[in-house]
């Protein structure tokens, strides 16, 4: 398995169609933003979409960007749209994405990133710490975590 950057891929249409197979509302929203070319407008000009792939299989994906669904805020950067396809869950796939993000962050002298979620117990497995409750762009409360890169 390897982590690739969607925007650097020469197979964007294929990977977009694979993202579109996500059974999660936020995954469908990511698909829509990418299809319309609006992702950077929503989460920032330098947004990355990282894909964990096994040959032609999309295993897991996430974004790494200056913004996410907690807006407005001075907190940055954000890990968002974290998803693993059901048949690959429990295999610590997100950890491979987080390792790639840690390498990117370190190269940019960034020591931490934030994650907005309603999950409890998932991100803690990857060393994330609960930061505080904040409202998302829909006004709903969301748990915000910090992922530190050491």
Strand content: 25-35%
Discrete helix count? 4
* Apparent shape: globular
Structural class: alpha+beta
Beta-strand segment tally: 7
- Average of the residue pLDDT scores: 95
Tally of individual domains: 1
Stated plainly, the CATH topology is called Aminopeptidase
> Distance between the terminal alpha carbons, to the nearest Å?
24 Å
CATH class descriptor name? Alpha Beta
The secondary-structure element order is EHHHEEEHEEE
What's the topology here?
Elements: E1 2-5, H1 12-19, H2 25-36, H3 39-43, E2 48-54, E3 57-65, E4 78-84, H4 93-107, E5 112-117, E6 129-135, E7 141-148
Explained architecture:
With 150 residues, the protein is of the alpha+beta class. It has a single domain (2-110), classed as 3-Layer(aba) Sandwich (Aminopeptidase), CATH 3.40.630. It has 4 helices and 7 strands, in the order βαααβββαβββ. It has helices at 12-19, 25-36, 39-43, 93-107; strands at 2-5, 48-54, 57-65, 78-84, 112-117, 129-135, 141-148. Strands 1-2-3-4-5-7-6 form a 7-stranded mixed β-sheet, sandwiched between helices. The longest helix is centred in the middle third of the chain and has 15 residues, at 93-107.
List keywords for this structure.
150 residues, alpha+beta, Aminopeptidase, 7-stranded mixed sheet, 4 helices, 7 strands, 32% strand
């Amino acid at each position: 398995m390897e982590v690739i950057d969607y925007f650097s891929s020469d197979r964007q249409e294929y990977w977009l169609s694979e993202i579109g197979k996500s059974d999660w509302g936020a995954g469908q929203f990511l698909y829509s933003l990418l299809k319309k070319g609006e992702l950077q407008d929503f989460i920032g000009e330098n947004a990355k979409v990282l894909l964990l792939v096994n040959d032609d299989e999309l295993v897991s994906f996430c974004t790494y960007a200056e913004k996410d669904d907690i807006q407005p805020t001075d907190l940055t950067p954000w890990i968002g749209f974290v998803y693993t396809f059901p048949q690959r869950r429990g295999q610590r796939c997100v950890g491979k994405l987080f390792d790639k993000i840690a390498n990117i962050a370190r190269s940019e002298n960034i020591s931490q990133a934030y994650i907005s979620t309603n999950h409890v117990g998932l991100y803690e497995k990857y060393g994330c710490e609960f930061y505080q409750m904040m409202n998302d762009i829909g006004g709903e409360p969301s748990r915000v975590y910090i992922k530190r890169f050491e």
